[in-house]
């Protein structure tokens, strides 16, 4: 088989992308409307929003770690993925029945627990299914499909609000439909490929590999990712900034759709770029774009400027998400991919709580410009740390095998 054919993206990876697309359609019928819904209907302020978004991500951290580790040990990813998608599909629309912001906190917690259960096994399954020479493109495709769903979801919400329904609650309840469709597609069309053993290892290696600690270089990389996460608060604050700048409520879903459209268009080319240029240069470029965008949100607050800043900011996750996941796969042993993604998502989830909570508190006490300025400064420090990490050794996992201590 030629190298070109061996690196072709498998149909199972494409199908997994459609599952992400439908799930994000459901999620983003709700997400861009949530900050305003909390403020107007449920009397929740920026501090409450920061707490909800921080807890929503951080409380799933242990679940992500456990589910990733277990998928390596059991050598089956799909049961956990199905369970996680099922919990989220059932919990998410319940926001439409909430009468207090504390209920939204509980619902978001359940939704994120579902995401925590599915995320690490799904990323590990994607890494198992993708060809080694096309991991960047595979993760880029998955992120692009995910972001395409985040384009369609807000558009559906905007059309429903403008022409069909009178308030957000009905839109939230209708989000159950695409969530159910994603679950059906996952169950019937995505295979459960066993976790791959390490090269040259016996068939029973994955359960034992799952018990070993991750390589030191990989642990340092995850620490750098955590530092950046402290700067990267919930995107809900960007939507709140847009409302404060005078963007009309009915345009908020369109603004969120525009943001995700940029991510969807750039995601796959960005993943291919990581395969050609390397992971770290693309990742560093994405983080520097984040710095510039957050500095803009701190200094500029006109409606037209907000649209331009959302377009600029969208380039950051479009570049960084495929690069992060591809770099993690490159550095992790095949029998530890579930564990590696579990640790990655868990650490970032734990960092999300102080990131969003402190951002919301800083906004409340010092104002939006100060909150965005602090985040931009932290992101710049994280970019420097990434470049220092890269300077200490090569990106590829194979380069670590020269030393027997590399896997300790």
Molecular structure report:
Helix 8 (135-164) packs antiparallel against helix 14 (252-277). The longest helix has 30 residues, at 135-164. The chain has a single domain (8-194, 207-398), classed as Growth Hormone, Chain: A (Up-down Bundle). It has helices spanning 3-6, 11-28, 34-40, 46-58, 61-74, 78-91, 101-129, 135-164, 168-174, 176-189, 205-209, 216-231, 236-244, 252-277, 279-299, 303-331, 337-366, 368-391. Helices cover 76% and strands 0% of the residues. It starts with a helix and ends in a 17-residue tail after the last helix. 55% of the residues are buried. The chain has 408 residues and is mainly alpha-helical. The protein has 18 helices and no strands.
Short recap of the structure:
With 408 residues, the protein is an all-alpha fold. The chain has helices spanning 3-6, 11-28, 34-40, 46-58, 61-74, 78-91, 101-129, 135-164, 168-174, 176-189, 205-209, 216-231, 236-244, 252-277, 279-299, 303-331, 337-366, 368-391.
